[in-house]
Amino acid sequence: MRPLTEREIRTSFVNCSKGEAKRLGLPRDFADLPWDDLDFMGWRDPGAPERTYLVAERDGRLVGIALRKASGASRGFTSRSMCSLCLTTRTGGGVALMTARRIGEAGRQGNSVGQYLCDDLDCSLYVRGKKHSIAGGEFEESLTPEEKIARMQTNLHTFLDKVTR
């Protein structure tokens, strides 16, 4: 992913108001993000941990979506869940159900799309082996790293399409 400016990020959001996009908190490490290793920029709002944001390129343009982390009891350390984007298995609260309001009339009527995602949204780093889940026991796959990246990008685009169409 190419480095993004704050303005590009804020103007990319499709499922929240301009005012909400203007007020959202950018990640504290924004200047130090590993852009070359990212397929999308994802982060938790530093001021509101239940709010999460994701910005990705889709069909030649930036698409930003605001997500909400579902509230609920945290799962135990021995319990495992899998992210639906990168297929990384995580323990405890490492994977969370996140919902995004759909765009247009559907979103105004309260319709949303949910997806189980890595709580830290570091899917790009897990797929590339730059970050590892503490759950261990990673699945042996015959896919190359490039094929894993392509699979994650397909999963991401499918999710973005559900929110934007």
What does this structure look like?
By secondary structure, this protein is an alpha+beta fold. 25% of the residues lie in helices and 28% in strands. The chain has helices at residues 6-11, 18-23, 104-108, 123-127, 145-164; strands at 40-45, 48-58, 61-69, 80-82, 89-91, 95-101, 112-118. The strands form two sheets. The chain has a five-stranded antiparallel sheet. It has a two-stranded antiparallel ribbon with strand order 4-5. The two termini are 23 Å apart. The model has no long low-confidence stretch (mean pLDDT 90).
Structural class: alpha+beta
Q: What is the radius of gyration computed over CA atoms, rounded to a whole number of angstroms?
A: 15 Å
Largest sheet: 5 strands, antiparallel
User: What is the count of DSSP helices, taking H or I runs of 4+ residues?
Assistant: 5
How do the helices and strands follow one another from N- to C-terminus?
HHEEEEEEHEHH
How would you briefly describe this protein structure?
By secondary structure, the protein is α+β, with helices and mostly antiparallel strands. The chain contains 5 helices and 7 strands. It has a 5-stranded antiparallel sheet with strand order 1-2-3-6-7.
Per-chain topology:
Elements lengths: L5 H6 L6 H6 L16 E6 L2 E11 L2 E9 L10 E3 L6 E3 L3 E7 L2 H5 L3 E7 L4 H5 L17 H20 L1
Antiparallel strand pairs: 1-2, 2-3, 3-6, 4-5, 6-7
Please tag this protein with its features.
alpha+beta, globular, 5 helices, 25% helix, five-stranded antiparallel beta sheet, two-stranded antiparallel sheet, 165 residues, 28% strand
